[in-house]
Amino acid sequence: MRGSYGDRDRDRGRDRGSPRFGSSRGGPPPGKKFGNPGDRLRKKRWDMNELPKFEKNFYNEHPELQRLSQEYRRKKEITVRGSGCPKPVTNFHQAQFPQYVMDVLMQQNFKEPTAIQAQGFPLALSGRDMVGIAQTGSGKTLSYLLPAIVHINHQPYLERGDGPICLVLAPTRELAQQVQQVAYDYGKSSRIKSTCVYGGAPKGPQIRDLERGVEICIATPGRLIDFLEAGKTNLRRCTYLVLDEADRMLDMGFEPQIRKIVDQIRPDRQTLMWSATWPKEVRQLAEDFLKDYVQINVGALELSANHNILQIVDVCLEGEKDHKLIQLMEEIMAEKENKTIIFVETKKRCDDLTRRMRRDGWPAMCIHGDKSQPERDWVLSGKNIQPFELNATDVASRGLDVEDVKFVINYDYPNSSEDYIHRIGRTARSTNKGTAYTFFTPGNLRQARELVRVLEEARQAINPKLLQLVDTGRGGGGGGEGTHHCDIVVLLPVLNGSTYPFDATPLCLYLTYAGGRSRFRGGSNSNNPNLMYQDECDRRMRSVGGNSSTKDSRGSSGSYSRDAETTAAEMEDRSSSYRDRREGGVGTDPVPTHMTNTRIIATAAAAASTAAPGGGSGSGSGGVGDKLHLRQPAPASNVQAVQPSPAHDGPDGHSPFQFPPPQPSAEK
């Protein structure tokens, strides 16, 4: 039976109370803080006997689940805390969604639910309050939106003046827009209307959507507070509340606004809280807002990195980062799938880096908090330029889902391991794989131990120089001034006078670590892909007379990017800008078979057989000697002079973002 909502226009007066930002004479009202959001909102006093009843339990366990054991939860690393939690579903059919939901799922070609969805679907459909904790990119959005659509379709239709039935609070406008797009895609089949309410955009269109009536409202706390204070909407019909990225909202200082908003919602609502971490602040929020809730953890309770991401850390000096970034981007842009996000620390550095890269032909765009909303939307659409390269501050580190991002580069290491995990989580979304590169400098020494913990948990190879920072507390790892150390050395023999990856396929790849075998936490070679990969590299080195403990003449630990002592002749062959190489049509070769699951940016080093006399041992047999001189000075007759830039002289005598002109093509 439809309930009465005759008081829907109550408290919609706009002339009561003082202006939000103080009195008309320019100061706050006596005894009140200037511009405190939510001051004009009063906590509702609900009479449960007068509130219309609503239904929120729509779940019937599928017969196939009665025989399901706890093995599925152990396999998917699902932990449940709380009583009465239903069993997880192993496919979408077992969740018994209505046909209009199943049709959209089939169109998306989803084969099976993710771990958080498998346990989240039955719990949300049963009407229980819940907390879901899982890593980024695990499918949390669908975990609450699909049950929300079912919930809405079992409620009375909206009437004039009614607010939304489902409210989703998100920390950033980008995440809110992303959730709204998913809500539109899955709700249009049942004519469910949704809107997105966020700051930085005109209020007019958002107000019109709310006044026309929407079942789902995705909002950032600040803008929603504005509309509630102005009487543009209300939350009297809200029975399904979602707090997405709750830990991030608390980090951003939204707790007072969240509490003001929740006070406007009836207490018998269904509340779902989603987070990547479980600090005490989030626990307190759950205790205050949720009743008899069930907590779901996927993976470790502490924040952990996605295991589908290959993490490579380059311990370097601050002044080396520009040069290393150029070399890294050259290799990435040679890949077929090369969509990249580069994270920097400040807005100014983001703008400066983007300006320099675009000046030299790199397809770079940037996003940060000072950008207008239309510009941020235009950049994130990715339709304006291909390939896509985005420079960003931490505004893009959480919740943002840019499709098909294959590489993340931490140009500046963040202030915490949590932010690091969220940054690299922009790649390898869902079940995809990705690669994250990080420049780690002595200035980041305080974060070294936490970074090692994250790498160990994800079973990643750990740079020996990073371990040295942790063990000794020093900012650097040996070597004098002007010496460029590396993280990974990849030696590529010459094939017909060419170097990989530009116009030849290497005969073999060798990987060596200074300081012995990399350290892992747990696991054996039989089920650890990193150890298996390293064993394969060691085996290949032994087969050609190499040594697994081989180091170069400087005793460095190698680098995934080529070292900074490249000669001018080599730079002339390889370091034209992306624009020049694209116009010249230079071909690339595929990554060898044994490299497909482990992405390493290789140094295109020539073998000692073609270097200057005394360049290396074993040149006649192609073996790897005890000392590897990767870079030998080229003959003077082959070196073309490059005019250095007076502003920024890089290690090769030219600006880190200024490349020598390409050689004239044979056709000309």
From TrEMBL:
Annotated segments matching region Disordered: 1-44, 541-595, 610-668
Residue spans of biased composition, Low complexity class: 546-561
Catalytic activity: ATP + H2O = ADP + phosphate + H(+)
Helicase C-terminal domain span: 324-470
Biased composition (Gly residues): 613-625
Helicase ATP-binding domain segment(s): 121-296
One GO MF term attached to the UniProt entry: hydrolase activity
Motif (Q motif): 90-118
Pro residues biased stretches: 658-668
Pfam families according to UniProt: DEAD (PF00270), Helicase_C (PF00271)
Name under which the protein is recorded: RNA helicase
Organism whose genome encodes this protein: Sphaeramia orbicularis (orbiculate cardinalfish)
